[in-house]
Structure formats: C-alpha cells, structure tokens
C-alpha cells in the first residue's frame, strides 16, 4: 500500500501529460505542414500541391523529370473519390488545399464551373488537343485524359453458347440476352452514370426510362460499384462471376493482358464498340482560385498536357491521352479498339438535367 | 470473502465518497476528453452543418418542407432502424453463448479462438464481399456443391443483394464485440452467486435467468448499444453486399453529398442520425445506471474451470465449430483463393485442378509500373501499425479520465450531461465529418487538412467511445468497500486509484486497447478521405489493387487481405499474452 509511484504514473498527471503531448504533436504538425506560401528562397525547392482523386497515379521517373526541371517538390493530396475530391475543393474555395485540382470528369464539370473554383489558364499545349475534348471555352478546366465506358463481354461464354455478342443497346433487351447484363448504379458509380447517359443519348429524355424498364424485365442486375460489378458479378474477370456482360471500359481487354498473373496472348474479354454504345468520359484539371503558386501550377498543367505525362497515363491510370502527339505502346495497338462514334449528350443538358434523370431512374428501376 | 456476504452486499449498496479534494479534481478529468471532442468533433461538425445550411435556398423553412414532403426519408429512416435492431439482436444471439463458453471454461486454443474471431472486424468490406461470394455467390462453393448434389440447373441460393447478406455481414463483423466485452466481464463474475441460487433450489436455467443475466445486463446493453450504432451507421455493407435496393441514412447522406451535392439535405439527415444516436444513448445511460451494481470481481483462475464431462465437451465443441464456421470459413475461402493461380479465360470450363502459387505474395513487393505511390507490403503494414499504436495511446489517454469521472461521479450533473455525448462521434456520418475537417481545420495553428496526424485523430474519434464503454462498467463495478478499506488504511485518493482501481480495471484496459487497435487497423473511410498517397495503410493498398482490372491486381488484393488477417490475429495474440502476464489478473 505504501509503494511510491513516480509522479508520471499518477492518473491526473498522466492525463495532463498525454494532453500536452497531443497539443505539442499538433503544434509540430502545424509547423512541418508547409502551410505558408512557399517562396523561392535559397533554402530549398518550393512546393507545389496537387489535389487529386484517389485513382491518380504517376511513374516515379516522370514525376522526377518535372521536379528537377523546375526545382520544385510536388506534394499530392488525394482527397477521396472524384465526387468527394471536387466537394472538398468547393468547400475550401478561397483557401484551397492545393494549387491544382485534377480529376473532374464531364459529368461533374458543371458543378466545378458553377462553383467557380478554377482560374482560367490558356495553356499553349491546348493547340495540340482535339476540339471534342475542350468543353470549357474559357479554359478554366483543361482536358487531360479520356476513356470510354462500353459494354464488355466474356468471349468464352458467347463462343460456348454459339451466341453472337450484342451489337446495339436494343439487343440487350432481347430474350437471348436475358440475365446476362450487370450494370453499376448511376447514382453511386461513374461508369454507371456514363451508361445512363449512353441510353439518354440513344433514346432521348422521353425514351430512356422505357428502355431501362425493358432491361429490367430482361433480368438486369444493378450493383452499386464498379468493383462488385467487374470482380464479383462479371464472368470474364478473375472473380469469375455469373454474368457475361458488364458495363466497364473499352480498355479492359488490353489491361487483362497487361495485368495477367501469368502471361497470356489473347484477352479473355472484348468490348463492344459499335456506334453509340459507348460514352466518352473526359477528365479535367484546373488551377484552383487562390492558388499560392500560380506560376508553378501553370507549369504543372503544361506538364500534364505534354506527351511525357500523357504517355505515362495509360499504364498508370487506365486512361488515354488527349494530346494528339502522344503515342500509345504496342500492347494498346494490338488489343485496344476504341469506338468511332460515341453516344453524345451535350454538357449543358447534363448540367441542367443530371439530378432529375438520376432521381427518375432510381424511382423507376430501383423502387 | 464468503459468497453469502457478497449477495447481501449487492442489496445493501453503500456509496463510497471520495474526499473533497478529489471531487474538485473530477471536473478537471473531463478537461482532456472534452477539449479533444470540442476541437476535433464538435467544431468541425458545427462548421460543416453551418456551411451546408447556408447553401440552402429559402432558408430552413424551405428545407423543412422539402424534407417533410419526401416519404423517402421516412422510409430510409425506418429501414435503417429495423435492420440495425434485427442485426443487433442476431449478433447478441450468436455472441452470447460464445461469451459464456469463453468466460466460464478453460480449454486449449482459447486465445487463438478469441484472436481469430477478431479478424472480420478489420477487413475492408470489398474484401469481405469477395469472401462471401467465394462461398455463397452464384458460383460460390456452396451453390456449386448444391447444384452438383441436387442436379440443379441454376444456383439455388441467392445471397448478394439480399437483406440476408446485410444481416450475415453485420453478424460477421460485430460478433467479436459481444464475445470480447461480455465474455470478459462474465469471466470475472463470481460463479458462487448462481451456485448459491442453485443450492437454494433454482434450476440451472432459472439461476441463469434470475441471477447471472441481471448481473450481466449492463455489459450486454453496452455491447448491444455499440453493435447497434455500428449497424445503424452501416455504409460499406449496405452499399456492396446489400446492393442498390437498400439505403440507410449513412448511404443517403453520402448520395446527397456526393451525387446530388445537396448539402442542406445531407446536413439535415446527418442531424437526424445524431438525434437517433443521442436518444438511444440517453436511454442506454438511464437503463444501465439503474441496472449496474458494484460486484466482487474474481480472477479467472477462480471462475473458470476445465471441460470435464463428455456432454459439456461435445456442446462446447459444437459451439466452437459454429463460431468458427460463421466467422472463419469466409476468411479461409479468401486465403485459399490468394494461393490459387487464377487461370485466364476458363470461366465457362469445368473446374480444373487448381494450381497452388505464391506469385501474388511475391508480386506484392514488385512495382511493375514504377508507380510513385507504390509501397512494399512491409511498409504499408508498418504505416498501419504506426497509426494503430498512436490511436491506442490517444484513445486510452482520453478514455481513461473520462470513464473514471463517469464511474465515480455518475450522479453529478457534469457526468449526466457528458455521458451520452461521448457516443456521438460513432453515430456521425463519416463523409460529413470528413468535409467538416476541410472547412474547420484550415487555418494555422490547426491547418490539419493534409496532415498525417488527421488519420489517427479520426480513428481516435471512433475508438474513444469504445474505450469509455469498455472501461466504465469495470470501474463502476469495483466495490466501494475496497476503496474504503484502502482509504481507512491511510491511502490518499490517488493511491486508492493506483492500488485499487487500476489493477482491477487492468483487464478492461486491455479490452479497450484491443478495440482501439482493431478499429485503427481496419478503418478505411476516414483513411481514404484524408490519405497522403505516399503513406497508404493496408486497407488503402487493398482498395488500390481491387479497383483495377486484371488477375495480377485481383490476386494481390487477396494476398494483401490475407496478410492483414494474419497481422491482426498476431496482434491480438500479443495483446492476449500481455494480459495474462501482467495486470490482467489480480
């Protein structure tokens, strides 16, 4: 009972000390976090902060080129999925988390522009980019990459059943394709939303719900996310699910070859690229209003649009260049087939009706 | 002390009064936990709610009418409540027999069983979904076997996208809470109490119902409350296993925030969720205050015995098999998949003899694409462990004073006011709070928006209520007489705490530490929201793999999940060792 304990074991002292440690940790982190605008001092490189969604990736070597060229340290701040990252940028307007935001796609573009989070930047590299990608005439959001959301099928299933793969959206409503299709919920998933837009591009605002009702009658399966659709339900992926057609990307066949565990010569899956069955997603980057390093941010945007970065994207992020000077690797020449004509819905239409379409779809198909 | 005296003592409860000096110190104890909650919870939450409502057009009345006119909200709220209630009830039904077995009997492999049952708690939902579909999916083992045996053309079991999947997943995730909390408390309950009832003529069942169950009620309520709040705010399970036809408040808040960017509605839903959590916690607090009583806790060596008769061995064996079946078969399915080579293009062919491979484990350490954000698995594990350790320390430092103040001044207005508030972080939408950090912690000295510290802080918000709930019943159950005795013998209040409270509460401290550890190891939502890509945790790495096409990525996700399972089990076993060797016993 009379054992003496050192003072730091006494509960109140203990808690006070813990609390002090906590406070000091905050102090330290506040000190080390480079919150002050970085200025070109003799002490070291400046820091450029790039806010991205969590699918962003880049090669070590490519990032190093940029850092050494401009004597700058690039800090990436991943801010959740594309929607979350955009919301964060909107809520931190005026005191932005970074200098640049990358990863706003054409479905979210109107939200970003309406909220006025970007400053315009007329990059010289825009000259090399096709007009179809430039959706913001004021160049607040600059196109960086694109990819097509298409129907992807399991080749083995159709070979074994002597069934030709569907060629049009209408085909999917036919009895021979009953119970074969899995799609993502457009309210939760970006390929899901792209496919909803494909159907609107084909059947119009008046007809798309009727088409979806036919799909539903043909035993359509809706899941919430791409991961479940592709890995769990789709029969052509490693998960070997039950359904041979999935809404995914036109690049999947090539990536099943590139990312095979044991080398394979032919992809087990193929994408349907006939006219108006795919939807083109374009991702944008922009300089955030109030960026502390506007000059570096411009350099970074130029860098993202340059062939060096553009050619690095496909293997890192599964998306394709918008710069017409960028070249694709051999494996893509062999296994990548891109649609000639994608379904189109104008950005103004998307901006005005997106929420209405989603709600109507949810009401008609899920409830 | 004789058993009969104990029984009488419970009825004749005396409150031990701490001397005045320490009474003054009690409000001081509230200071660290409250300061933490104010800075890292109430302030960010208040700011985001304020910002959200400010974006609403037409102010609150317009919002209220929009809110009321949607029958959808009522439907979502009702589903959220009943699925959580049903899940909690089922989890208790599954967990309580197991808790009894762990509490009363000593058998070989017990600590292993306890460690293994904790694994589900830390697994990312996407991985659990893969595990379940490997078992119960349309091409899962169960369906394939049934089709083979019964010669069925179609898989007979429909699991994914059903309510059943939600319930099973909730049980799978949360049974360990019941096993640990109730099992631990029960193991220190004096068996003489129910033995006395049996001597007096009560049957085994009657003594269980009338003596043991009432004594266990506070801890069952506690475990039930925590499980309920987890199920109530369920997100990943509903989204991935339940599918798009089921929506909880948490899912709807996410949809309104991200898909529709309707922040005012999201904020209203968030408040609705908080009101539910708060009322439930107030109900819990008043119930548990009425039911709690000081007990004479006994060491395990005293309460536990071996399984002697054959019938008890068989019963225990069946129970263990049931628990293992429910909680580990999906894990085994997952681990097995991680060492079987994935053959391309054979999905429609008959099952070939599987080839075993460790390729996916080897590939974990190779950076095929030269990505800047690649880290080898050892680094990811190190990062996860570093966050987990920080979380454990923070949560204990904050939770110990809070629960001590709660247990010893239960009737003080301060405690009555703060007690329910402590649970609020658990009932708060992660996406709302995540955005709250962005709008609130954005100026020096607290510009933590991109700070690595934000991750253990967010984990601590979730772990802290667990710590308080694990510690308070243990502290409260210490018999005042022990403190009085120490005090009479000349101990100062601080000495009383050290020589009486601390050793007695040691075991609960370990349960609390275990929970904080598990929460941090498995947490994904907050980590994904505020991650710095150079410092990914294991769940974040798993998610990166699984969100890319190709067998190579799929295999690596499974391999890393298996490693996460192994590390968690090892961590649990290490903590278990500590507990046996150190203050866990008295």
Order of helices and strands of chain A: HEHEHEHEEHEHEHEHEEHHEHH
Could you list the spans of chain A in which at least 5 consecutive residues all have pLDDT below 50? Answer: 1-13, 23-41
Termini Cα gap of chain A: 68 Å
C-alpha-based Rg of chain A, rounded: 24 Å
Instruction: Identify the CATH homologous superfamily of the largest domain in chain A.
Output: Periplasmic binding protein-like II
Question: If helices are DSSP runs of H or I spanning 4 or more residues, what is the number of helices of chain B?
Answer: 25
Given the structure, what is the number of helices of chain A? 12
Tell me, what is the CATH class of the largest domain in chain A?
Answer: Alpha Beta
Can you walk through the features of this model?
The complex is a heterodimer of chains A (367) and B (586). Chain A has twelve helices and eleven strands. Chain A has 367 residues and is α/β, with parallel strands linked by helices. Chain A folds into two domains: 46-146 and 281-328, D-Maltodextrin-Binding Protein, domain 2, CATH 3.40.190; 148-280 and 335-366, Periplasmic binding protein-like II (D-Maltodextrin-Binding Protein, domain 2). In chain A, strands 1, 2, 3, 4, 5, 6, 7, 8, 9, 10 and 11 form an eleven-stranded mixed sheet that branches. In chain A, helix 6 (190-217) links the parallel strand 6 and strand 7. The model of chain A is unreliable at 1-13 and 23-41 (pLDDT under 50). In chain B, strands 1-2 form a two-stranded parallel sheet. Chain B is 73% helix and 1% strand. Chain B starts with a helix and ends in a 5-residue tail after the last helix. Chain B is built from 25 helices and two strands. In chain B, helix 5 (110-122) packs across helix 15, helix 5 packs across helix 22 (493-522) and helix 17 runs antiparallel to helix 22 (493-522). Classes of the chains: A alpha/beta (367), B mainly alpha (586). At the A-B interface, helix 1, helix 2, strand 2, helix 3 and helix 5 of A face helix 2, helix 6, helix 12, helix 16 and helix 17 of B.
